[in-house]
Amino acid sequence: MKKAHVDEFFRRLAQVNPAPETELIYHNPFTLLVAVVLSAQATDVGVNKATPALFAAADTPEKMMRLGETKIRNYIKTIGLFNTKARNVAALSRILVETHGSQVPEDRAALEALPGVGRKTANVVLNSAFGHPTIAVDTHIFRVGNRTGLAPGKTPLAVELGLEKAVPENWKQHAHHWLILHGRYVCKARTPECSACRVAEFCTYKAKTTAARDGAAKPARKTTAAKTKPVTAARKRKPAAAAGVKKRPTNGGKAAR
């Protein structure tokens, strides 16, 4: 994608949503960290159904540590991989208390050293909690980066590095949220709504959909006339003998001996 197009790409996304935010529910850096850890291989909607009760019970590392793994598990059992996630949340809470003064560190390496925290989670926390211009590449951003031609790459890290290079500095602060929301609601995985896309003209995706805005988008495809077989006259039935059917005997109903 050309540099001028990239700038206009983000300008248009900013027109729709000038100050995008994460859709995860959180109250402070710690609850954001926990929510992002819980969101791995799960939807934000599913996480948001479980976390209000959890955060009402424990919204600091000390409270979460006292709550313990078993009770944490009971709060998040509707989320996939809840056993592992409960163990990670309990463990990272203890580390924050014992090593970081009960504070979420504003440092990528320190964040990634916590149980259940990878590069993507660290980027989300650094961006949403501390205002760093980081870009966390999830499945939506990975798709948008490749599909649009904005930052093609075979791995999430490759796409992240491509975006860091391609996105102008004045758009980097909110680039992560613009892209993830665009991928979640417009540039969908199975059926992208290209007809409703404000940046479609800059996108290099060849199989753009063509349906009307108020209808279900379908990939454009060539249509061919259906082939029909010529109608022919009905064939005459073969005589019984010719068809291999034996005739009934005519001598009083008994077969000749």
Question: Could you provide a short overview of the structure?
Answer:
The chain is 49% helix and 0% strand. By secondary structure, it is mainly α.
Q: Can you give a write-up of this model?
A:
This protein has 257 residues and is an all-alpha fold. Among the domains are: 77 residues, Endonuclease Iii, domain 2, CATH 1.10.1670.10; 100 residues, Endonuclease III, domain 1. It is 49% helix and 0% strand. The chain contains 10 helices and no strands. Helix 3 crosses helix 4 and helix 8 packs across helix 10. The longest helix is centred in the middle third of the chain and has 18 residues. The relative contact order is 0.11.
List the defining traits of the structure above.
single chain, 257 residues, mainly alpha, Endonuclease Iii, domain 2, Endonuclease III, domain 1, 10 helices, elongated, disordered C terminus
The biggest sheet amounts to: none
The rough form would be described as elongated
CATH superfamily of the domain at 29-128: Hypothetical protein, domain 2
Helix tally equals 10
Strand tally is 0
- In which range does the helix fraction lie? 40-55%
- The CATH topology of the domain at 29-128 comes to Endonuclease III, domain 1
- Kindly report the average pLDDT value: 86
Give the second-level CATH assignment, the architecture of the domain at 29-128: Orthogonal Bundle
- Counting helices, strands and paired strands, the structural category is mainly alpha
Give the termini distance in whole angstroms: 94 Å
Q: Supply the CATH class of the domain at 29-128.
A: Mainly Alpha
